[in-house]
Write a structure and sequence with these properties.
Blueprint lengths: L1 H22 L4 E4 L4 E7 H8 L3 H10 L4 E3 L5 E4 H4 L6
Antiparallel strand pairs: 1-2, 2-4, 3-4
The structure holds zinc ion (ZN).
Length: 89
């Protein structure tokens, strides 16, 4: 029940980010690991959406449990789709 609430809040937060993004330039493009288009979040956004600390995000990146890539300006972007796989079942 708590999880359902969290998921709802998370989705609303993501929606807010997406709306804000679309006002600028949407950061939606291909993820080779997902094999489809996904939303790419920076570390601060990922932390906010997941409710995890920035350290936890970096830990997950290091562990390879999320899809990520570095931009030309060395910004770390995380695949939003891969975040959903944090707690399987
Ligand atoms: Zn992905």
């Amino acid at each position: 029940m708590r999880r359902t609430k969290f998921t709802r809040i998370r989705n609303e937060t993501l929606e807010t980010i997406l709306i804000r993004r679309s006002e600028n330039s949407a950061r939606v493009f291909w993820c080779a690991d997902c094999g489809g288009d996904t939303v790419w979040l920076n570390v601060a956004e990922t932390s906010f959406v997941c409710g995890s600390s920035v350290r936890e995000i970096f830990r997950r990146v290091e562990a390879g449990s999320v899809h990520f890539q570095e931009t030309a300006d060395r910004q770390l972007l995380i695949c939003e789709r891969s975040l959903a796989r944090k707690n399987p079942a």
